[in-house]
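Lest this sound abstract, we let one protein speak, letters for residues, whole numbers for local backbone shapes, and leave readers to judge:
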Amino acid sequence: MRGPLGATYLDLADVRAELGPILADEEVRKIGQNIKYDLLVLRNAGMPIAGVYFDTMVASYCLDPGRSSHSMDNMARDYLNYECVPIVNLIGKGKNQLTFDMVDAAVACEYAAEDADVTWQLYAYLKARLETQPRIAKLFAEVEMPLVSVLAQMEYNGVSLDTALLRQMAGELSEALEFLDERIYEQAGGVFNIDSPKQLAEILFDKLGLKSGRVGKAGRSTDASVLEQLSDQHPIADLVLEHRTLSKLKNTYADKLAGMINPRTNRLHASFNQTVTATGRLSSSDPNLQNIPIRTELGRKIRAAFVPAKETDCILSADYSQIELRLLADFSRDEALMAAFAADQDIHRFVASQVYDVPLAEVTNQMRARSKSVSFGVIYGQGAFGLARSTGMSPAEAKEFIEGYFARYGSIRAFLDECIAKAKETGYAETILGRRRRIRDLDSKNGGRRALAERLAVNTVIQGSAADLIKVAMLNVQRKIDTERLPVAVLLQVHDELVFELPAAEAEEHGRWIAEAMTTALELDVPLKVDVAYGPSWLSDK
């Protein structure tokens, strides 16, 4: 058959008749590079794939999550010493770029055959490497490979959006930004381009005389960390930070989400990326749902636009409660923290009572807030200056508070030291399921690099183990949905939260088993807790 520009192509019905049964055969093992993409494309073409066995991109990621690229071309160059034919040789680039259906079938066949051959060679190479590392091979086979199909199903499901609400929000954000503009101009003593780092730096450091922050290749920095440091010097810094938050909400979500809806399904289909973050966490793109800010009312309201397609359905959210702190308690074996979690106490109030040595009833909100900041700071390697900025304490007070914290929780200090020592000895940090991340600079003479490496060593163990946990939970949940053919669709995974679409009348029933599947995903000595909420939108509580 002939298509655009006279190119020959195969008839879809013929291809489906010949290849469809092979692709659907569970006994025929399928090997691919980024096979999640193939799962979606072929499913939409009426050729669902069964028997997914090995993804070379995922295998490379498991072996080296810190690698800059897991693309076939890059791996072929590095692992096979082979240069693949660039796609631009077939479709060109720029304004004259073709779509692949305009490429002649004979040329496309040669290109596709090279892809298949290179993928097969990469499979042989990566499989041999996996066989030398049993824990990583187990992680790959039992978690990461089954997860490919789960993520493909999530992307296929998509989610419905309330476009009218998004338009309303865009208008509200425009009004809020106009109000902020005027306040910023008032503080600056004149009009300027708030989005221009150069003009903002001139206002902050030249006109207002604020103490200059970092200087980089592009000039004086006005990034978020610099503005946070300047907030004590002048109110304009906080106003600019708020302006950036609202601008991001408007430009990234309120203005654009509706335009990303697939006209065929009338749903938004985000991509969930399995091979991006060094810790093992999933990321999302087109759009990036991980970055929806939820600390502001307007940020949270974006979630209200995520709704079920049918009026009889609801959106259910299942969110791990304080998962990283629970993992920290389990790993450090701190008896007091483990007992507090077992008793389902307010963990931040409990920690404050111990650090300040006062009864629980006498813990003030400020004490609790400071203890919460330190507890999370421990995970992210926050020092005295970081704590001082986030709590309003002086650096000296913050330093004293951190020392008091570790004096009380010596087991946590010992665990952190052990993470760093192990990484120094082996060259990598390891999660609960054996995921490894190479850690460099632990012996660096540069104090800043060494401190960053130490933070990465600790953070990888805790945050990476949380990623392991939610991935196993996702497998458990989808397995039950498929086995029992339940009317439940997994829509989104954001941080420690899973979002579902299901019949509203059955929400409590499904919420119970989903929570159980999540809390029993891994066996820990500290009990896991999942907060379940459901309603007419992602924002809604029951």
In short: The chain has four domains: 4-157, 160-269, 297-324+467-535, 328-463. The chain has 21 helices and 16 strands. The first helix runs from residue 12 to 24. The CA atoms of residues 293 and 299 lie 5 Å apart.
